[in-house]
Amino acid sequence: MRSQLFVAASLSVLAVAQTTIKVDVGPGGQFVYEPNNVEAKVGDTVSFNIVDPIHTVTQAASIGTPCVQSGFTNPDGATTFDVKVNNTDPIYIYCLPHCALGMVMIINPKNPGDVDSFATVAKGGTLPSAPSSTSSSTPAPSSVSSTSAGTPVPSSPAASTSAPPSGPASGASASTPVNSSPADTGSGAAPTNTDSSGSSIAPSIIGSIGSLILAALL
Question: What are residue 93's DSSP bridge partners?
Fold first, then answer.
């Protein structure tokens, strides 16, 4: 008796835990499932109310392959069709004659925008590309210089300093020619020549010329 009561109580709990979720197919002449996505637990039943029998409840394999049957479909002319949920994996559903119009739905979608992506691909669009593994928000540092853009890099002293002119020693202008003649003494006298012995020859010559002139006058 106790075992029978336990079994009855267990069945009652299971009946309460399992839920039937209603979905209308083509309500008001629209090419839609209403709602077009539902969350269902294991053991729940999604019951489709096919308002117009021209529509179907057909399973596809994935978002990327809509309009291609890969599983169940309702019998022709059926007005209701139930799908029992055995796990929480996504179940992709579309209408056979109206898939290209975006008439799709998902049971247990992975992401909030999956049903929109499913409809986009069904209508001939493409799935959004996956983000790159390299972050696009962080630019790679320049391998040339770590100086930030817009900041001029000062030139090296060697590049900006002119090479000193060759020739005269420090203090002399490079454009000043060197006079090869004897330096001016600063007294105003003409330079005097000297013989190899270093003695002056100018006074003796002047004295001889003076004696000749004096003799001629006498």
Answer: 59, 105
Neighbours of 72 (CB within 10 A): 12
DSSP 100: G
CB 108 within 8 A of CB 91: yes
Percent of the chain surpassing pLDDT 90: 49
Closest CA to 67 of 22, 120, 21, 113: 120
Structure-token match 């109310």, residue found? 49
pTM of the predicted protein model: 0.55
Q: Apex CA 10: angle with CA 8 and CA 11, to 5°?
A: 65
How many Cβ atoms are within 10 Å of 177's Cβ, its own excluded?
A: 8
Six-digit token string for 139: 């630019």
Spatial contact of 108 and 40, defined as CB atoms under 8 Å apart = yes
pLDDT of residue 214: 63
Outline where the chain has alpha helix (H).
Answer: 2-17, 114-122, 157-160, 202-217
- The CATH code of the domain at 20-122 is 2.60.40.420
Average pLDDT over the chain, rounded to whole?
72
Give the residue extent of every domain in the chain: 20-122
Q: How many C-beta atoms lie closer than 10 Å to residue 137's C-beta?
A: 4
Give the residue ranges of DSSP H helices in 148-198: 157-160
